[in-house]
Amino acid sequence: LDTFKDGQGYSLDTDLTGDDWVEVVGRYKETLARETGSEFPQDPHDQLWGAIGAVFSSWMNARAATYRKLHDIPESWGTAVNVQAMVFGNMGETSATGVAFTRNPSTGESKLYGEFLINAQGEDVVAGIRTPQDITEDARKESGSDKPSMEAAMPEAFNELTRIYTLLEKHYRDMQDMEFTVEQGKLWMLQTRSGKRTAKAALRIAVELANEGLISKKDAVLRIDPASLDQLLHPTIDPGAKRDVIATGLPASPGAASGEIVFSSDEAAKLQVDGRKVILVRIETSPEDIHGMHAAEGILTTRGGMTSHAAVVARGMGKPCVSGCGAIRVDYGRGTMSIGSRTFKTGDVITIDGSLGQVLAGRMPMIEPQMSGEFGTLMGWADAVRKLGVRVNGDTPDDARTAIKFGAEGIGLCRTEHMFFEETRIRTVREMILSEDERARRAALSKLLPMQRADFVELFEIMKGMPVTIRLLDPPLHEFLPHTQAEIEEVARAMNTDPRRLADRVRELAEFNPMLGFRGCRLAIAYPEIAEMQSRAIFEAAVEAGKRTGKAVGLEVMVPLIATKAEFDLVKTRIDLTAQAVMKETGAKLNYQVGTMIELPRACLMAGDIAKTAEFFSFGTNDLTQTTYGISRDDAASFLSTYVSKGILEIDPFISVDREGVGELVKIGVARGRKTRPSLKVGICGEHGGDPASIAFCHQVGLDYVSCSPYRVPIARLAAAQAALGKAAASQA
Fold first, then answer.
1. Which of 134, 219, 310, 465 sits CB 3.0–4.6 Å from 139 for a disulfide?
2. Strand order in the sheet with 113-118
3. Cα 565 from Cα 498, distance rounded (Å)
């Protein structure tokens, strides 16, 4: 057809005559015979079975495979074929074909919504070969169309359609997507199915169906895909806008943002002060980029996976992020990023879509999030049935305030190392780490104490008596060490020492594999004064916040990365001694618990022993997945997608808990821990805490709560409710 009539453009329904169609069909038969080696079948039975086989075969084509991937549909489900008689909508002005929804799929409004065409076949409406007409007269007036509506042109068929769509919605108890044909004045319904809808529409439809008595409140909770709530919490690109996609990476943090390209965090912070919006582009981010990430509208990295530093921090901040975009080449020296033949420089405007993992050229029009009243209504229904508590991974007052707005019930993980990366503090932290004796370390820690105490006071005040779990310092040391000569000289001046001597000390502390190195409880054991300072800051802040709010702080102190009970006991002793000292000094009574983060396989296996003294467990499934698989999450993006595409892994284990391996270790840890201490409180605080399938698993194994990034709190609340109602999450179905 592309070469027919010398390649001139034409419309199939108007430009081809009967003779033209005879020629087209003849050419088609010739092509078929040449390509397949057999003539076009003339027996109707052969034609029918050929058509049926073609539909079954379509299950494995590229488009179907992509659709299954997007909607978490297993290949093993297969497809089906309906064989039915035809009716014809192209038999003159009394015939028509159309598509209609019983409610508006964009807004959820309870009003017939759709389009039709007079004297047309079904595909004409779907394919857009002709401009469709409005079904209702109200819609025609709104659109300003000069073509008659179905209500005006075919009133009898329209009235019948209205009667039937009301019956169908009541029968199926959901908004329906219907296809119909009018053949010489008579209406025929071709098919109906539950219609696709936006997250905003889904909420409204579910709540209104429940209020109308068509479904129960529990049914309404089950109707909403938890992951779809991201559409309501973040800005998104206008769906009608044309996209110039220049590269695709991983959808690391949802939402979209436009801004000028910057390649350094310092530049991002500087431009933000000037009121300019920027996208921070880095090969990878480190904790030293925190100020730039905070200043930027969004983050783009060429390395890293879904749980890389950039991804985790961006999700916590509620900023869009595209990570692992390996097609991009960043040249910091020239201030450019290149994708194939295209090059973008500092100051050029790009847009990132963190929900799809796309990088786009130019500034895109955005749609701001709008949380309707139905959102609060449905969340209330969800909270009434869920068993799992939902806390937040929050390190800052902004995190805490955002989480409360979204319904969090406490802080499940406060990472104290994230409080040290501000420019005014990191120099002092470096002094402490690089000190060669306890006296010098304590001098640096004395500067950090009031900073930490003030941080905790503010957090405790915001949370108003809700539980707050604070993890002691757990950084791989390389994240804090000075890397450049200028940074070394700056710290040397503050410490009044020789820069060369300090550089030697930096080299001494360098590690080949920092994630498995000098971190976690090992820091508190080697340098107990660090745990002592942090404990004092925590307890003094709890006393102060209690006085200000009149409510006791729900305080939980967490020891990170233990493998043995002996490690935990050493650190716990230091914590308890500090608590006793603060109570004696202040005269206040402190209620607190000391527990541990379970993130090593050995800790899971030894959970019964550890629970003799640990008062709660929090599973850190990010590191537990790394140590179980022997995979660095920051380097996994280069091969994990291949594993998933080849069927070796069903899903990236850093996105959803691996139930057979990591999940089995969690089960062992819970069972052995509670055998020793039946009242043991157990939660999860890795990135899996915001994944619906992982939340379903947490419910099944009897955890008390999940903890997740602030903007995933509503998702976790809804997923926990669905787990309680027995719904299996799609990725684990």
1. 134
2. 133-134, 113-118, 96-101, 176-183, 186-194
3. 41
Instruction: Classify 108 in phi/psi space as left (phi over 0), alpha (psi -120 to 50) or beta.
Output: left
Q: What is the DSSP letter of 339?
A: E
pTM over 0.90: no
Under DSSP, is residue 399 helix (H, G, I), strand (E, B) or coil?
helix
Is residue 654 domain-shared with residue 722, that is, in the same domain? yes
Domain that holds residue 467: 386-476+511-732
What is the C-alpha separation between 261 and 299, in angstroms, rounded?
10
The pLDDT tens digits for 50-79 are: 999 999 999 998 878 877 876 778 888 999
The per-residue pLDDT for range 585-605, each reduced to its tens digit, is 999 999 999 999 999 999 999
**Which phi-psi region, left, alpha or beta, contains residue 612 (left: φ > 0; alpha: ψ -120 to 50)?**
alpha
**Is 309 annotated as catalytic?**
yes
DSSP 471-486: EPP---GGGTS--SHH
Q: Do 267 and 291 contact (CB within 8 A), yes or no?
A: no
Strands of 336-339's sheet, edge to edge?
Answer: 329-331, 336-339, 342-345
Is residue 243 located within the same domain as residue 174? no
Q: What's the rounded Cα separation, in Å, for the pair 577 and 583? A: 10
Neighbours of 39 (CB within 10 A): 10
Q: Which residue is catalytic, options 309, 478, 688, 699?
A: 309
Instruction: For residue 89, tell me if it sits in a domain.
Output: no
Is residue 212, in this structure, part of any structural domain at all?
Answer: no
666-677 pLDDT tens trace: 999 999 999 999
Catalytic residue, chosen from 521, 685, 698, 708, is 685
Same domain, 56 and 149: no
Q: Which two tokens stand for residue 260?
A: 């000028």
> Distance between CA atoms of 55 and 45, rounded to whole angstroms?
16
685 is catalytic: yes
pLDDT category, 688, cuts 50, 70, 90?
very high
Amino acid at 682: V
- Enumerate residues 6+ apart whose C-beta is below 8 A from 514: 476, 477, 478, 479
Which tokens belong to 644?
A: 């998933």
Are 455 and 567 contained in the same domain? yes
> 47 versus 481: which is more confidently predicted?
47
